[in-house]
Amino acid sequence: MQKLLAFLISKRHWLLFLLCEVISFSIIYRNNAYQRNMMLNSANVITGSISSVSNAVFSYLSLRKVNKELLEKNSRLAMEIVRLQEHLKNNSLNTIDFRDVFLNDTVNNDSNNESYTYEYIAARVVNNSVAYVNNYITINKGSADGIRPDMGVVSLRGVAGIVMTVKEHYSVVMSLLNSKFRLSCKVKDTNYFGMLTWKSDNLSYAYLEELPAHTMFQVGDTVVTSGYSAIFPPDIKVGVVESYDKQRDNNFYSLKVRLTTDFQSLDVVCVISNQSQEEQREIEREAMKND
User: Fold this and answer.
1) Comparing 121 with 275, which gets the higher pLDDT?
2) CA–CA gap between residue 176 and residue 171 (Å, rounded)
3) Res 246: pLDDT
4) How far is Cα 140 from Cα 127, in angstroms, rounded to an integer?
């Protein structure tokens, strides 16, 4: 207390000066309308500037939440587009005049027109590897959310992987960037398919192999899922044809595919649940037993 009193006494001239200044400004404010208005305007400007800075700071801090909501919404919209495309295909099948089918030389047995029921579950990536020969992705959804092994996983830009291991609240996905990953794919608007694999030489490229040599395509065409599995619906984007070579006595193509999914910036993904998956696999197993 003595130190505080000593400090105040030593600064008594400054304190007296400040007190006189406050009294002077108070008298000016009360007795002069012009000065009073100037002070109010200055105070409003300062308050407005502080509010603007404060709003800018809070807006910046909330960007992460807004970005998360936008990504999840975009994911749902992207999956809804796939669902609508599937619905249109099924409707077009129902309106086919069978007389036209039998007038053709061959009957169209394209399995892409089969009726599947898909549901889409949005999830956030909580761990992701890209530096290994076999890479995996961890997502924050599990069995409690309806996730099961062998479900397809897609990003906002294309195929990302397949669910491998599931716990109650988390799941591990085999990334497309995995030497064990295999996916039946085709060039869009063609009916010939091959097998997509990743060779661990580049994060941006995979290879579509065993594509028949009579397939018509060109560099820049889109590569999509074929639909010949119970995991992914048809026409999910995978990548774009970058280049190609002939293989096996020139009977097949090997296509270098530039992947559309950026695995180094994965954030939100969608897990695809095929409600008919188990039934399809069961009947296929029975057919193999009887073979």
Assistant:
1) 121
2) 16
3) 85
4) 9
Q: DSSP assignment of 31-76, as one string?
A: H-HHHHHHHHHHHHHHHHHHHHHHHHHHHHHTHHHHHHHHHHHHHH
| Cβ atoms 175, 224 nearer than 8 A | no
pLDDT, the chain, mean: 79
Report the distance separating Cα 65 and Cα 188, nearest Å. Answer: 36
Degrees, nearest 5: CA angle 139-145-148: 75
Q: How far is residue 73's CA from residue 127's CA, in Å, rounded to a whole number?
A: 21
Give the tens place of pLDDT for each residue, 156-175. Answer: 889 999 999 999 999 999 99
Q: What per-residue confidence (pLDDT) applies to 41? A: 62
- The pLDDT of residue 107 is 32
Report the alpha-carbon angle 265-193-177, nearest 5: 25
Q: How confident is the model at residue 60 (pLDDT cuts 50, 70, 90)?
A: low
All residues at 6 or more sequence positions from 191 whose CB lies less than 8 Å from its CB, including other chains: 110
Distance between CA atoms of residues 38 and 43, nearest Å: 9
Q: Per the structure block, which two tokens stand in for 25?
A: 């400004």
Tell me if residue 152 falls in helix, strand or coil.
strand
Tell me if 258 sits within 8 A of 282, measured CB to CB: no
pLDDT of amino acid 112: 43
What separation in angstroms does the CA of 117 have from each of 49, 90, 231, 281?
Answer: 55, 11, 11, 15
